[in-house]
Amino acid sequence: MIVIEGSDCSGRSTQTQMLKESLEAAGHAVMEMGIRRSNLLAKAISSAKQGNLLGKTTLSLLYATDLADQLENRIVPAMQAGFVVLADRYIYTLMARDLARGADLKWLKSLFGIALEPDLIVFLDADPEVLFYRTLAKYGELNYWESGMDLATGNSMHESFLKYQKSLRGHFHRLAEEYGFTMVDATPKPKVIHREISALVSGYLERIVQQPSRAQRETAALSPVATGRPVRVEEG
Amino acid sequence: MAMKRIRGLGANKKYPGRLIVVEGCDGSGKSTQVHLLRVWLQSQGFPVVYTEWNSSAIVKRATRRAKRKELLTPTTFSMIHACDFADRYEKMILPPLHAGCIVLADRYVYTAYARDVARGCDLRWVRNTYSFAVKPTIAFYFHAPLEVSISRILFGRPSLKYYEAGMDIGLSLDPVESFKLFQGRIKDEYDRMARREKFEVIDATRSIHETWSEVRKVVQAKLADYEPPATQNSQA
Asked: What is the CATH number of the domain that holds A97?
């Protein structure tokens, strides 16, 4: 499982798509996941956000449930079948957003205890000023939620955006230490970033193909099917 | 800062209102009693707010669809109910409590503890999820032997619903048998919680009127020091 994290306009989705194509070209079956993509709640969350009449705990739990549904019904079976799972944002985005809204870290850690631990977490790091410029260039306007407008800080939307993105980045950096993110500079050209991420990913994939984990080796050695040797039965 | 005090630390929160919740197995008669309580409190001139399990405007439809299509695992079953609860909590429970109202809840966090644990979820995880919720003033537990509550539900009921009967956890292929086993597990969980959560245990095998007399007595005693919110400016 490979996770690409980063703010809106950090180039995250572009990188996820480029990585997916290169993985598939190399013969890996890829299953994608992300935020608000569950069969269970994607629609409910979108319509709930329209009204903005939504408590912070509720929003937090809705997103967590959305992720849990993807994991339990789609991702776990895919991983068992040998897919590479590629997540365009994962629990860390949800945690950073909630932390920026005052949530308790211990509460979040327990809530997300149900999630699978990824093998590689790439964080696309960008200054809030860069994100601000890119957001305007891409959409022509700022988004209510990405500007943290529900927090009602700052005198103007752009002030709120910068404050919110700065706070998010701070939380991401703290999570990065705790969960071992690989930080990638989000400012070079997409191709350059892709090369960096590809190198990380293929290095990782080679390692697990050449050197299966100890648990994998041990279970393979014990299996009578794999070795043709009967499993020894303890006497007494 | 303000959010931190509400989130994760709910159990010790002080509020001028009163929160009365009713818990118990299906068929224990709790909804009948909470209805009588609501009418009585209103007749006393108290401001009353009523909320029931599974009724959030945002989440209800998604839950109903998921149940119909049998999409839920024990984890997502637990989480989607937490979403529903959080939405009602943030809109319909906490604000009225701060305004000094009496809030009546037909089922509260204990329903989640009992049902989710009966489905195999980890109790500590479930309790963490709901740890934002305040402790009620009174938590009634309508206690009846399993045969009594089950016969009340099965009487005149053509069929049981999939999740209601706990068919999702594979206790039995026969819905009625599964329902009995599942309700037994839930009752065990309630019984286990009764002392720790300081439930007011009500013998629910008696007539509606006898039960109501007892419920009213408990409520009267607990409301002795209750003062409805001031709706007029006091004269300075």
From this structure: 3.40.50.300
Length of chain B: 236
Contact check, Cβ <8 Å, B4/A104: yes
Contact B120/A at CB under 8 A: no
The answer to whether A101 contacts B2, with C-beta atoms less than 8 Å apart, is: no
| CB spacing of A40 vs B80 below 8 angstroms | yes
pLDDT of amino acid A99: 95
DSSP per-residue codes, A54-76: --HHHHHHHHHHHHHHHIIIIIH
**How many domains does chain A fold into?**
1
For residue A100, the distance in angstroms to the closest alpha carbon of chain B comes to 10
CA-to-CA distance for B133 and A66, rounded, in angstroms? 22
B217 touches chain A (CB under 8 A): no
CB A139, CB A147: distance < 8 Å = no
Instruction: Please say whether the beta carbons of A175 and A96 come within 8 A.
Output: yes
Average of per-residue pLDDT values in chain B: 91
- Confidence check: pLDDT of B235 > 70: no
Tell me the residue ranges of DSSP E strands in B127-167: 138-143
The predicted pLDDT at position A221 comes to 47
DSSP H or E segment with residue B9: none
A114 CA: distance to closest CA in chain B (Å)? 8
Rounding to the nearest 10 degrees, give the CA dihedral for residues A157, A158, A161, A164.
Answer: -90
- Chain A contact for B123, CB < 8 A? no
Q: Does B59 touch chain A (CB under 8 A)?
A: yes
The C-alpha atoms of residue B100 and residue B57 are separated, in whole angstroms, by 24
- How far is B107 from B84, CA to CA, in rounded Å? 12
What is the per-residue pLDDT for B10?
Answer: 43
Cβ contact A41–B3 (<8 Å): no
Residue A60 lies in a domain: no
Give the closest residue to A146 by CA, choosing from A100, A102, A86.
A100
Note the residue count of chain A.
Answer: 236
- Is B58 in CB contact (< 8 Å) with chain A? yes
The pair of three-digit structure tokens given for residue B40, joined into one six-digit string: 């009585």
For residue A125, what are the β-bridge partners?
A185
Name B20's bridge partners.
B104, B138
Testing the interface with A: which of B65, B87, B127 to mutate, by most A Cβ within 10 A? B87
Asked if A116 and A71 touch (Cβ cutoff 8 Å), the reply is yes
- Of 3.90.1150.10, 2.30.30.520, 3.40.50.300, 1.10.10.10, the CATH number of B15-222 is 3.40.50.300
pLDDT reading at A215 higher than 50:
no
A136 close contact with B: CB closer than 8 A? no
Residue A53 lies in a domain: no
